[in-house]
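Notebook entry, structure prediction.
Reason for the run: the old model in the group folder had no record of what sequence produced it. Starting over properly, with the input documented here first.
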Amino acid sequence: MRMLVSVRSVEEALAAAEGGADFIDLKEPRDGALGGLPLATIRDVVSALRQCGVTLPISATIGDLPMDDVAQILRRVEAVGACGVDYVKVGIERDAAAASVIDALAGCGWPVVPVFIADHGLDDALVARACASRSSAGPAFLAIMVDTADKRAGSLFDVMTTEALQRFIATVRSSNAMVGLAGALRAMHVDQLAGLHPDFAGFRSAVCVGDRASRLDMERVLELAALVRTPPPMPV
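New structure, fully documented this time:
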C-alpha cells in the first residue's frame, strides 16, 4: 500500500516528498473534500517539485463542482491538466447526472481519476460504469478512488462497511485500474487499510498539527510513512 498525501503549497509539497509520500496530491482542504487550488499554485508546486528532482506522481483536484454542469467540469479538467500534473481528480457524487459526467471524462483525453463520494453510499452500477469505460488507448481511468465529503462525520470506515469497501476494491481491480481509499483517515486506520490491500491510501488529517485545514507537519508524514510500510505481524 502506497501513501498519498494532500498538500496546499510548495512548502507542504516538499515536506511531504521528503517525509516519504508516494503521491503528492494538490487540494485546498479549507474548501471541501476536493477543494481546488488556484491554477497558479498548482503550476508553482509542480515546477518546484520537478526542479528539486522529485519525480513522484502529482495529482490535483478540480474543486467541488455540481454533477449537472458537465461543460464546467471538462473546462476545469483541461485547465488543471494543463498545469503539468500526472492525474486530475474529479469528485463523483451519487447523482442522476453522474453517469453523463463519467462518460464525458472517459473521452476527455486527460488522465482523470474519478473519486466516488461515499457519504450517502456508493452506486455500484455507477462504479461499474467507470470501470468499464474505455478510451481510444484502452481503459479510460488508470486509477479510481473513494473518499468522503463530510470529514466531521468520521472516517471512511464510519460511512462504509468493510464488505462495501471490499466490493468497491474488487470492482476497480477487475478493470486493472489502481484503487485508492481516502476519507479522514488517520494512523489508527492503517491496519484496517492494510487488510483491504488498496494500491494507495490518501491522508491529510493524519499529517497535520491540528485539523485537516491546519499546517502539514513533516514529522507526522515520516511517522505515518514508517507505519504504512511496516509489514503486518505474522499470524500465530
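Summary: The mean pLDDT is 95.
The old model has been moved to the deprecated folder.
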